[in-house]
């Protein structure tokens, strides 16, 4: 079994009072900034003039600086901006602020794995990659828990890159859950695979196909939503706490029979072959190149998918049903003026 690192394996004193610049204040940025500040680090946030995130970071009590200024000030720099813009940000704002003894950090290995960012010798390069969405990284930490993370050292000029990455992971709350050592390559390839084939692409396509199958067959959309979407969390919560065994313990034996017979019909040889193809295209760089190209061309296709998803029947039905369940603390990004999240 792989070695997992917990609280006693990391030394929080390495980040206490340490000058850490968090570049970006989005999903991961707000969580890293707030968790590390709560853990004793001296955190400042780097955002461009005119960034939509500035008001929020300032409202949360952070000193916000231009990215280049933040990089010059910090001893450790964590890059939490969108992956496809990081190389430009590195050239323009990060590289000028790097000097021997500084640490450059990432939460995802994309730019290092695909050779888009190459830090100079003398600089430590490491990664702490939470295995969960940023909003949950903050919420779980604030509730006293943590989200697991991977860490990796790409360049260790100081001889203390590994200890610092582990301390950072502890400041983030990840050692409360378990932290695993990896490489930039392993993190990048498994993360891209997981989000594309299973967690985001796979699950979204599965629930939409189930919903559409029922609605097209004449069933009420609200029933299709509860059955194929809402209940998914209730089922996954059981898996999260006690594995497939606990989920199968809680469901009826009729449902369990459906699990064993239906699963292989939906996830069949063709689906497994598609997963292998997805993994090959991640490994050989085809997928990353396509995503970079999509951004260079203005993200037209990507934005069209986003708009189509927002307008879809499952999103419209779900939005209405969630409104009647305030205990879910529904987040309505389809509202004309959505609350900042
Ligand atoms: N989302 C997640 O949960 C996870 C993300 N990661 C990784 O974390 C990194 C950040 O992703 P994520 O949190 O999703 O990003 P988001 O899109 O949620 O947030 C990006 C933030 O960066 C800001 N920003 C954009 N351009 C610049 C720039 N040039 N300089 C400084 N700030 C900038 C944005 O500001 P503005 O508001 O102005 O756009 C925003 O605050 C990526 O490497 C991603 O792969 C890793 C694990 C999980
Ligand atoms: C699953 C998507 C993710 O990899 C994550 C939250 O871990 C991401 O890039 O957002
Ligand atoms: Mg991930
Ligand atoms: Mg990811």
Short description:
The chain has 15 helices and nine strands. The chain is α/β, with parallel strands linked by helices and 341 residues long.
- Our estimate of the beta-strand percent is 5-15%
Contiguous uncertain segments of 5+ residues: none
Shape: globular
Domain unit count? 2
Class from helix and strand fractions? alpha/beta
Instruction: Give the beta-strand count.
Output: 9
CATH class label of the largest domain:
Alpha Beta
What's the CATH architecture name of the largest domain? 3-Layer(aba) Sandwich
Task: State the major sheet.
Answer: 9 strands, mixed
What are the secondary-structure elements, in order, as H or E?
EEHEHEHEHEHEHEHEHHHHHHHH
In round numbers, the mean pLDDT is 97
Radius of gyration: 22 Å
CATH superfamily descriptor of the largest domain: NAD(P)-binding Rossmann-like Domain
| Strand order, sheet with most strands | 1-9-8-7-6-5-2-3-4
Helix content: 40-55%
Bound small molecules, by name, code or SMILES, are: NADPH dihydro-nicotinamide-adenine-dinucleotide phosphate, ligand LWWEY6Y5, magnesium ion
Tell me the distance between the termini. 38 Å
Q: Could you name the CATH topology of the largest domain?
A: Rossmann fold
Counting DSSP H or I runs of 4 or more residues, the number of helices is: 15
Domain KARI C-terminal knotted: 183-328
GO molecular function, one term: ketol-acid reductoisomerase activity
Binding site for substrate: 252
Cofactor: Mg(2+)
